[in-house]
Design brief:
Blueprint: H1 2-29, H2 33-52, H3 60-82, H4 93-123
Length: 127
């Protein structure tokens, strides 16, 4: 059990490290704040969903589904931010956090459902 909890620690370190790297790159490239917020939110969202659903990493369908949701997310984010007035600072932080949480639950739930009961049982070692 100790080894399993240690692995979880490394996965969450990956989520935070990927987010810090994304924010750092945005700062170096001087990306506008509203885009930096969306980039950080996107990295947090998709790395978290991937870590939580680690047991499905072996399936191409999982990665295809996650990629499809990423494309939809990026299109929606682009449309939303492009429609905001020039000079606006972007989406308020609390609203973005709430949307990110809901989006994570939706994407994670749909990916789990999409993978099907047979693959879920196999990934959990029951099949």
């Amino acid at each position: 059990m100790r080894r399993n909890s240690n692995l979880r620690w490394w996965y969450w370190l990956f989520v935070f490290g990927a987010t810090a790297l994304a924010v750092g790159i945005c700062e170096i490239l001087n990306v506008p704040q509203k885009w930096e917020d969306i980039i950080a939110s996107t990295v947090i969202l998709f790395t978290t969903v991937a870590v939580v659903l680690k047991r499905f990493w072996q399936y191409g369908a999982f990665w295809g589904g996650l990629s499809g949701f990423l494309v939809l997310h990026l299109i929606a984010a682009n449309v939303i931010l492009a429609s905001m007035p020039i000079g606006s600072s972007g989406i308020p932080g609390l609203v973005m956090m709430g949307v990110t949480y809901v989006e994570a639950l939706l994407i994670g739930g749909l990916l789990r459902k999409f993978m099907g009961p047979a693959r879920q049982a196999e990934a959990e070692g029951k099949g």
